[in-house]
Amino acid sequence: MAKSAFSLKTFWPPWNGAAVLGVLLAFLVFLNVLPEKTGPTKQELYAFNQNCVEGVLHGAGIPNSCSSAAFMRHYYNVDPLDVLDREQGRLIDTAQKIARGDITNQKTYRHCIEQGLCAEIPVLPSASEKNTPQGKAISAEFWHLVNDGSPTAETCSLTAICRALVKIGIIPPPPVLAMKP
User: Which of 37, 61, 87, 147 sits most deeply, having the most CB atoms within 10 A of its CB?
Assistant: First the structure.
């Protein structure tokens, strides 16, 4: 019988079986001991909010730990763009629920916010301002959020995380909504 070109000995180090098993076992233990990377804890989110959002917006300056998205991820385990995306997603989703009629009164709206399912809409038009220039501008901002699914400069200026990220320079300011006469 001809000898095969493939041999386990050519690919396997000439260790004894116990040594190979020991190395393999150590590697498996190593994999299980390392903590899995998870999202931020409540404490990390709180620290991020205090230092990188509230602190920056209330004149405390920009700490080094908040000077870039990479530093925020390193120091707080928080991706600021992910936080912004989630907040804007909740804003858009809430505005669309109101527009569809899923939320029709203040009690339902407040309950949805308390449950964490909705966001506070900073550009929610009120019936009393409907025909004023300011009311028309607020209404246009609201419907832009509903229909276009993106914030404007006004919506950003009323949302803490967006204002802070613009002030730090992580994101550019959103565009101003052009009002139609």
Answer: 87
pTM score of the predicted model: 0.72
User: How far is the C-alpha of 124 from the C-alpha of 96, rounded, in Å?
Assistant: 12
Closest CA to 80 of 37, 122, 49, 117: 49
Nearest to 94 by CA among 111, 117, 110, 127: 117
Indicate the average pLDDT of the chain: 82
Q: Which amino acid is at 157?
A: S
Whether residue 140 contacts residue 177, with contact meaning beta carbons closer than 8 Å, is answered with: yes
d(CA 55, CA 46): 12
Domain range annotation of the chain: 83-156
The answer to whether residues 166 and 56 touch, using CB atoms and an 8 Å cutoff, is: no
